[in-house]
Amino acid sequence: MIVAFSISPSGGDETGGVSEAVAEAVRVVRASGLPCETNAMFTNVEGEWDEVMAVVKQAVDVVAAISPRVGLVLKADIRPGFTGQLTAKVERVEAALVGNDD
């Protein structure tokens, strides 16, 4: 599965601000060893259900340690039997774009 998620601290006085809290969450994801990427809107992580959800929970927990309230937006693409889709999906779109340049 691929999960795209965004974590936002809110309420209270976050030490270091939103960027620092989000950076802590991204550190958790990157330390997991699962395929991942971070963009301007979401962090994407790929793996099996239990391992991905455990990473999301750990990321929420580190933000919750900084902020009394945490917002989480999560979108999942659940496709059993497929791996490497974090890059493969993009590669298919790029190939289609090249194919239509004729």
Explain how this protein is built.
The structure is a single chain. The chain has three helices and four strands; from the N terminus they run βαββαβα. It has a four-stranded antiparallel beta sheet with strand order 2-3-1-4. The protein is elongated, with a radius of gyration of 16 Å. The longest helix has 16 residues, at 49-64. It is α+β, with helices and mostly antiparallel strands. The mean pLDDT is 92. A hairpin with a 4-residue loop joins strand 2 and strand 3. Helix 1 packs antiparallel against helix 2 (49-64). It has a single domain, classed as Alpha-Beta Plaits (2-Layer Sandwich). It is 45% helix and 25% strand.
Task: Summarize the SSE layout with pairings.
Elements: E1 2-10, H1 17-31, E2 36-38, E3 43-46, H2 49-64, E4 69-77, H3 85-99
Antiparallel strand pairs: 1-3, 1-4, 2-3
Helix pairs in contact: 1-2
Question: Which descriptors would you attach to this protein?
Answer:
102 residues, alpha+beta, Alpha-Beta Plaits, four-stranded antiparallel β-sheet, 3 helices, 25% strand
Termini separation comes to 34 Å
The helix content, as a percent range, equals 40-55%
Radius of gyration: 16 Å
Integer average pLDDT: 92
Q: What would CATH call the architecture?
A: 2-Layer Sandwich
Structural domains: how many: 1
Low-confidence segments: none
The quaternary state of the protein chains shown equals single chain
What is the β-strand count? 4
What is the count of helical runs?
3
State the strand order across the main sheet: 2-3-1-4
Summarize the biggest pleated sheet: 4 strands, antiparallel
- Binned strand content: 15-25%
Task: Sum up the overall morphology in one term.
Answer: elongated
